[in-house]
Design brief:
- It is built from eleven helices and 14 strands.
- The chain is α/β, with parallel strands linked by helices and 411 residues long.
- It folds into two domains: 289 residues, Zn peptidases (Aminopeptidase, 3-Layer(aba) Sandwich); 110 residues, Alpha-Beta Plaits (2-Layer Sandwich), CATH 3.30.70.
- The strands form two sheets. Strands 1, 2, 3, 4, 5, 6, 12, 13 and 14 form a nine-stranded mixed beta sheet that branches.
- Bound molecules: zinc ion.
- GO terms for molecular function: hydrolase activity, acting on carbon-nitrogen (but not peptide) bonds, in linear amidines; metal ion binding.
């Protein structure tokens, strides 16, 4: 098949900027936490855009927005593409959004060209990929893969609102979440377009890359309890300083991550009571561990547990650990990788294969269907930050590669 269908570049860019404005009014960056007022507004924007593109739109039981371009053979398995539009606190305008808006643009251009494809193509905007608000992500893709469990709805946000309540506020019935599950036979493949959020493509001076493996994250919540005493009246040898135990563990996590060639981060900390003249009696913090190899990641986690125990014993403090998330690392399907590569070739787009460090809905979708990912170069690798940027040209090339890939998969 010779693909002559072109995306409308300016139209895509306009939608990226328009969506980026939603949640950007009060502060630096864009903030659209899942199912917040801003997210709901953005969701409506996406629904309208899908309708404008001529797609048949439905919302599934967990709020995934799905727009369909009907193929000529109704029973043929569906080619699925998309990403998410929720963001972290003060995030950028490309993370997730490019994958949803790029997919809408690609499918819209195919429809406008009048090209008939055998397989239907569905564009999906997944609910709560980031997990920032309730501490656990991939809600939409997990529900679709049949991996969501009921306990998720008991989680609370910073204001004490449960996930179930947030669902009801968004006109979703949390009891029906199982209805979002799809069967393996329904789908042919899932392709996600996403910004790289790293510096590999920039280093190689390439606009797009093809993902081979995705690191799976483990998230732990750790609470260390020591004793809050007077900072003046308590000699050093008598202290049970919870913050020092945390600090020591943070340094150990760095060593462990380096030793295993993985990554480890403590990104969220809280010290109590939090007075200038009080020894910290409590330190609560998060741990994020990632590796493309599950076995290595398990070893990393075991070492972290050992370190916690060792440090607690030494400092006579006590720690509680709670695993908030554990997603297996995964590989992209060779078959889909090859279709993306072919598409790059026919478009004369130089590219490379690379690993993916961030988690994505594609990690979960790999359990349900053949999965592939197209990466677009990120400026200085900055993401989850107001400075997140991908150039116009790169976004266009990535989206055109997605279009060609979708047409090849759906022909
Ligand atoms: Zn993302």
């Amino acid at each position: 098949m010779v693909i002559t269908c072109q995306i409308n570049q300016q139209r895509l860019w306009n939608t990226l900027l328009e969506l980026g404005e939603i949640g950007a009014l009060l502060e630096e960056g864009t903030t659209r936490l899942s199912l917040s007022v801003e997210d709901l507004k953005a969701r409506q924007y996406v629904i309208n855009l899908m309708k404008e593109a001529g797609l048949k739109v439905r919302i599934d039981a967990v709020g995934n927005i799905i727009g369909k371009l009907e193929g000529t053979v109704k029973q043929a398995p569906i080619v699925l593409t998309g990403s998410h539009i929720d963001t972290v606190f003060q995030g950028g305008i490309f993370d997730g959004a490019l994958g949803v808006l790029g997919a809408i643009e690609a499918v819209r251009s195919i429809k406008e060209s009048g090209f008939q494809l055998k397989h239907s193509i569905e564009v999906v905007s997944f609910t709560d990929e980031e997990g920032t608000r309730f501490g656990t992500g991939y809600i939409g893709s997990k529900a679709m893969a049949g991996e969501l469990d009921e306990a998720t709805f008991l989680l609370t946000d910073a204001n004490g609102m449960t996930y179930a309540e947030a669902f009801l506020q968004a006109q979703l019935d949390p009891r029906l979440y199982k209805q979002a599950k799809r069967e393996r036979e329904e789908l042919k493949a899932y392709v996600e377009l996403h910004i790289e959020q790293g510096k590999v493509l920039e280093e190689h001076q390439l606009p797009v890359g093809i993902v081979t493996d995705i690191q799976g994250p483990i998230w732990l919540d750790v609470v260390v309890k020591g004793h809050a005493d007077h900072a003046g009246a308590t000699p050093m040898y008598m202290r049970k300083d919870a913050a020092l135990a945390m600090a020591e563990l943070m340094l150990d996590i760095e060593k462990i991550a380096k030793m295993y060639d993985g990554v480890g981060t403590v990104g969220k900390v809280n010290i109590e009571p939090g007075g200038v003249n009080i020894i910290p009696g409590l330190a609560a913090f998060s741990v994020d561990l990632r590796h493309i190899n599950k076995e290595s990641r398990t070893k990393m986690m075991n070492e972290v547990y050992e370190a916690i125990n060792r440090i607690c014993q030494k400092r006579d403090v006590h720690a509680e650990m709670d695993m908030k998330k554990a997603v297996d690392p995964t590989s992209c399907q060779v078959e889909v990788i090859e279709v993306i590569e072919e598409s790059c070739k026919e478009l004369d787009v130089p590219t490379m294969r690379l690993q993916c460090g961030a988690g994505h809905d594609s990690l979960i979708m790999a359990k349900l269907t053949k999965m592939g990912m197209i990466f677009v170069r990120s400026k200085e690798g900055i993401s989850h930050n107001p400075k997140e940027w991908s150039d116009y040209e790169d976004c266009m090339i990535g989206t055109q590669v997605l279009l060609n890939t979708l047409m090849r998969l759906a022909e």
